[in-house]
Amino acid sequence: MKTIEIGKKLVELCNQGKSEQAMETLYSPDIVSVEAASMPNMPAEMKGIQAIRGKAKWWNDNHTVHSSKAEGPFPMGDRFIVKFHFDITNKQSNKRTQMDEAALYTVKNDKIVREEFFYVTE
Amino acid sequence: MKTIEIGKKLVELCNQGKSEQAMETLYSPDIVSVEAASMPNMPAEMKGIQAIRGKAKWWNDNHTVHSSKAEGPFPMGDRFIVKFHFDITNKQSNKRTQMDEAALYTVKNDKIVREEFFYVTE
């Protein structure tokens, strides 16, 4: 599958609320996931599909997602960028936030091997 | 200057139509510029501020920009992403196009040393 096709599939699944299906079908078992900031009890960089499943579970357990939108993909060679918009409420603080971020994905052997999430941290 | 401050300045200047001022004030003399595709008489990767000035001149000579919008910056470490929207007319073909792309910038010693433009090429 070409990089752009993997990117299109990822955007399509995310916009259908199927980000877990995207993870299970498009990600390498050796996926490396990098956040702009570390989170409570979670390092900024994590490796392996099991760890990334854990991060997704933490996200879903701790946030109510009112809406989300993925824009792209914007491809170059074996990489592509997707822009995300989220409207979420943190279940612990009950604070509702609109946030935008950009993700840079790297593809190898038809699978996503690296995802990097860019956003304002302060 | 922090990476995010350089990114904010770049977005601000681009949204004021001052992309050349951004280039002259924020870019390293050794800037490397990479496009998703090569253009007529222009390689995908170019190096040095003189070459990048030449690319900007080519762009301005060959396109009428009706509007442009920069969104971001989305920072991580020494890099940041900006999403661009352009409404342009190619002066030769007279074809008007709306295009979206994402750019990944790398900062070193308070200057942008690398810019990479991600977009659909076919």
Could you walk me through the main structural features you see in this protein, from its secondary elements to its overall organization?
The structure is a homodimer of 122-residue chains. With 122 residues, chain A is α+β, with helices and mostly antiparallel strands. The first copy, chain A, is built from three helices and six strands. Chain A has helices at 3-15, 19-26, 49-62; strands at 27-35, 45-47, 63-76, 79-90, 96-108, 111-118. A six-stranded mixed sheet of chain A has the order 2-1-6-5-4-3. In chain A, a hairpin with a 2-residue loop joins strand 3 and strand 4. In chain A, helix 1 runs antiparallel to helix 2 (19-26). Chain A is globular and about 40 Å long. The model of chain A has no long low-confidence stretch (mean pLDDT 95).
| Oligomer class | homodimer
**Helix content estimate of chain A:** 25-40%
Uncertain segments of chain A of ≥5 residues (pLDDT<50)? none
Distance between the termini of chain A: 38 Å
How much of the polypeptide of chain A forms β-strand, as a percent range? over 45%
How many DSSP helices of chain A?
3
Described by the principal axes of the CA atoms, the overall outline of chain A is globular
What number is the mean pLDDT of chain A? 95
Helix and strand succession of chain A?
HHEEHEEEE
- Strand arrangement within the widest β-sheet of chain A reads 2-1-6-5-4-3
Gyration radius of chain A, in Å: 14 Å
Biggest chain pair contact, residues each?
A-B, 23 and 23 residues
Largest sheet of chain A: 6 strands, mixed
What structural category do the secondary elements of chain A indicate?
A: alpha+beta
What is the total tally of β strands of chain A? 6
